[in-house]
Amino acid sequence: MKKQIGLIALLMGVVFSVVGCGGDSSDDATVAFRNDSASKTVCAIWDGVNTGALYPGELSASRAANAGTHTIKWTNCSGGDLTTIGWPNLVEGYSYTFPYKD
User: Fold this and answer.
1) pTM for this structure?
2) H or E element at residue 75
3) Which pLDDT belongs to residue 8?
4) Dihedral over Cα of 46, 48, 54, 56: its sign
5) Closest among 35, 32, 49, 19 to 82, alpha carbons compared
6) What b/e sequence results for 41-64 when a residue is b if at least 16 CB atoms lie within 10 Å of its CB, and e otherwise?
7) pLDDT tens, 53-71?
8) Dihedral sign computed on CA atoms, order 80, 100, 44, 70
């Protein structure tokens, strides 16, 4: 399962770098979210927007994000915060995967 997830993430990265996301992406970084919980379905709240449910062991698709400071908070999708807000600072051209761990 982990090999399949890794392969999917690699393929998504290749497609993303070849196709791009349209427009000028020169100041973009790439972000993805991973649920390392064995039992919880979690949601990443990225800059105040719910990125969708991630089941245990699931990795989200990569997405472009502007370089600079952002906010991330993990919540239990059925309600309730799991972490306090963090402020990752993204660097142009880099890829990041933000994991949730119990």
Assistant:
1) 0.72
2) strand 72-76
3) 53
4) positive
5) 35
6) ebbbbbeeeebeebeeebbbebbe
7) 999 999 999 999 999 999 9
8) positive
Here the tokens at position 42 are: 């979690």
Q: Where are the alpha helices (DSSP H) in the chain?
A: 2-19
Bigger pLDDT: 26 vs 73: 73
* Contact between residue 46 and residue 71 where contact means Cβ atoms under 8 Å apart: yes
Token pair for residue 86? 């963090």
Joined together, the tokens standing for residue 60 give 């989200």
- Rg over alpha carbons for the chain, rounded to the nearest Å, is 14
Tell me which H or E stretch contains 65.
Answer: strand 63-66
C-alpha–C-alpha distance, residues 15 and 81, integer Å: 33
Amino acid at 29: A
* Chain length of the chain: 102
Distance, in Å, from the CA atom of 86 to the CA atom of 74, rounded to the nearest integer, reads 9
* Residue range 2-26, pLDDT digits in tens: 555 454 544 455 444 433 444 444 6
CB burial of 73-97 (b: ≥16 within 10 Å; e: otherwise) equals: ebbeeeeeebeeeeeeebeeeeebe
